[in-house]
Every structure is written in structure tokens, then in C-alpha cells.
Amino acid sequence: MNLSHILNHLGEDRDKYYKAISPPIIQSSNFAFDKVDDLRQMLTDESAHHIYTRGNNPTVEILRKKVAALESAEDALVFGSGAAAIAMAVLGNVQAGDHIICVQSPYGWTYKLLTKFLARFGVSHTFVDGTSMEAIEAAIQPNSQVLFLESPNSMTFELQNLKACATLAKKHGLVTMIDNSYASPIFQRPIEFGIDIVIHSGTKYLNGHSDVVVGVLCSSKAMVGKLFLSELMTLGAIISPHDAALVIRGLRTLPLRMQHSHDSAMDIVHRLEQHPKIEQVYYPFATDFPQRELAQEQMSGAGGLFSVLLKANSIEQVEKFCNELDCFTMAASWGGHESLIIPICAFYNIAGRENSPLPWNLVRFYVGLEDVNWLWADIKKGLEKL
User: Fold this and answer.
1) pTM assigned to the model
2) CA-CA distances (angstroms) from residue 127 to 78, 138, 175, 268?
């Protein structure tokens, strides 16, 4: 389906909604029926009809259709956060006694879901080096049900071979899931490689304006229908119609924003690769990235997120570098219009918490929509203080 059609027309029944260019926000919790039989017929498939907004809302439905089409999926569900989307996908496909295989160093709340939450209910897990198909295959147990991928991850950007993972999982009857937040459906569509479920923190690129927290899950109609009736309706981790409208607004410019962030990040990455104060650059399309060839096979771009190891002698030096920056806001998320940094040393020396497993001199950058030369001048100034 044509990308412009998906972003600007798909799902928007303008004849029904007063020819409105922007979809109306149906801010209603409840929907009425003229006859008992009308209600009865709607109840046969609540995921496709409007009965109660905890299930299906017209504005949210437009968003579902657009994101599903972007990911080459049959259907999609929208949740109140990316963490909720991950939790619903996993919970809907395991039961007590099952086993999950997950790539090592996943998103923090995925890690906690597996190690803290599901462990309480007898669901075990194994973390594996996702760059090794041998390691993934060796982790498969008779009770394995899920293979959870994150390609690339959002700190050091290791990839998995999606086609090989999908083939292996089908051989052993595993459900494959991937957090595709890093690449977005503009730069990577895992379902086309055979992955079963694609998940997004739509808070990032899909919304793109740093004003909505949202999660998305894309899959087959059968899988979405199962998760709708069970996890979504029971746990109720939904998005509001107003927030759905904001995400639809964000999707209008998704390809432009993705390409701008990618181009600017590539520019800055190439400069950093030559800088004497940089020990290493982590970016899937970086010149010396060990999985660069795989990244180019699976992804058409890499967006604005990259990390560097600074040649610093102490945490204090890293902090000084970060504190010197004026054009990069220090914040934990990414994917919006604004450029950001987050230093891993901030997660060190917190009372009651273990230090991060990542190096203390690692700093993650997100390059937004600002002028690239303005951003580079800011980084260069900070590096001169090291």
C-alpha cells in the first residue's frame, strides 16, 4: 500500500465525518444502539465495532489501521505505553511453566517483566547473545514458547538476523516478537522477514512530538483478536481518543522526520568517528559497526539514535562534557523533534541500585530536527573540555 495513502487517507472516512481533513476525536466512553439485536450483533465481534472505548474507539481505530498498514500487518492494537504493549504480547502467549528466550540487555521494563513479574508465576527465561544464531538455538527448551527480539536495541544497537530467527522459531513452534521502536516501520518491517508480532514504543518516532505516551502491537488478525479479547479488554491498558488523534497527527510527517534524523545522525557519526576524544561510536550504519552489513540488509535507515564511548578518565569528566552541552537536552526518551543525551554514569552510584552493566563513559545521543551544524558545534565544544 502506498505510504502517502496510509499516512494521509487510510481509515479516515471523510464522508462520514463532515469531510474533516483531521480525523474527529470521538471523546466518548460509550456507544448507543437502537435495538437489542443491533447490540447483540456488535457483541459478536467487539474488536470491529464500537461498544465501549476500553475496547474499540473510532479515533483509535483509525490509528490501528494506519500502523498495521505501515508494518505490513493484518491488524494492530494500541496501548497506553510501549511497556504495556510488550507486556500484553508476552502475557498473551505464555502460561505457568513456559520458557521465554530473550536477547540480552533488553529494554529495562522488558527485563523487569521477565525477571520480576513473570518469574512470580512460574514462567522462566534465558537471556542470549542475539548476534549468534547458535546461542539462540542452544537456548531452546521443550517448554519454550516465545523468542523476544530487540533489533537494534536502544543503547549499543546489536541486531538479530530476523529472517533466520523467524525460520528457527517456526521450526520449533515459537512465537517471535520484536521491539521495533529503534528503526520504526519506515526503516524496518520485521513481519516481511517472518516475525509474528511487532511492538513499538509509539512515544518515540510514531508520535514524534514528545507529548504522548503510547504503545503499538502489530500482527495477524488471529493474534490481534486473541489479545484484544483477553489482555487488552481485561487489563485495560488503553490509549485515549485524544492521544490517538495526536499520534495520527505525528504520523503525517513520520517519513520526513525519520529521514532528517537519519541524515543528521550519519553526518555527526562520521565526524565523531574521526575525533580524537571518541573511543568508539555505536550506530548500525557506522563505518566500523560489526553488524553493518546485516543492518544494511534489514534496514533502509537507522534514525537519529547513537551512542559513543568518550575518552574520559573519570565520571566527573563525562558529567562535565554533558553539562557543557547547550543544544542537547538531558532526558531519557527519544524520537521527538528535540535532540537529547543521556549519560550512563547517571545510573551509577544510586543508593539501593546496582550500577548499570554498560560502561560509565557511554553517552547516548538522539539527533532530532535541529540544524546539524548547530548540533555539531555544541558537541565539538563539549569534547574540547575533555
Assistant:
1) 0.95
2) 27, 11, 16, 33
